[in-house]
């Protein structure tokens, strides 16, 4: 009977030592690996993050809807549309064509990109704020830290995959709309946003009955 008790006690001590090793060695190793991955994500991000300074290649996109309903040629650098030539038609009593552009110092900001970058930086800060010699006290503490990190990454992901819907007033009064030359009529608005891997261009026309896109 005594031998059984001693064996169980030794097993408990062994498990406790293994648990402490996981807390104070393995958790730090995993956090270091995660930090390396996130730093690489930051390096590839189209903004200057974590001290990574550099010029970001300007990309050019053309979006169109046949037959001649919409055509938009866009130059994109990081989170900024630096130039755009925009042509589209709106259904009124008859089709009416509009042409506007983004040029010069008046740029269109894709705020989703900066928001996602902010979430990525906060996730990195959660890891960097943990001293390499810090001794974790419990599994609950580790899970809480991981939840904070994963929460930041999830919010950053959702920012790019599920764009926040904006009210028409917010769209029409946005600073981005003021970058258009010439300005559009008060009942017409446009929007650029990212959805997953795509850059989307949308046109909104408000009538007295309903808004159409």
Describe the structure.
The protein has helices at residues 2-44, 111-128, 139-161, 168-172, and strands at 59-65, 70-77, 80-91, 95-102, 108-109, 188-195, 198-206, 211-212. The protein folds into two domains: 1-50 and 113-161; 59-109 and 163-205, no CATH class. The protein contains four helices and eight strands. The longest helix is centred in the first third of the chain and has 43 residues, at 2-44. It is elongated, with a radius of gyration of 26 Å. A hairpin with a 4-residue loop joins strand 1 and strand 2 (70-77). Strands 1, 2, 3, 4 and 5 form a five-stranded antiparallel β-sheet that branches. Strands 6-7-8 form a three-stranded antiparallel β-sheet. The model has no long low-confidence stretch (mean pLDDT 85). It has 213 residues and is α+β, with helices and mostly antiparallel strands.
Low-confidence stretches: none
Q: In percent terms, what proportion of residues is strand?
A: 25-35%
How confident overall, as mean pLDDT? 85
| Terminal residue distance | 79 Å
Characterize the main sheet.
Answer: 5 strands, antiparallel
Shape: elongated
**Class derived from helix and strand content:** alpha+beta
Number of domains: 2
Order of helices and strands: HEEEEEHHHEEE
The number of strands is: 8
Rg, nearest Å:
26 Å
Count of helical segments? 4
Q: Determine the fraction of residues in helical runs and give it as a percent range.
A: 40-55%
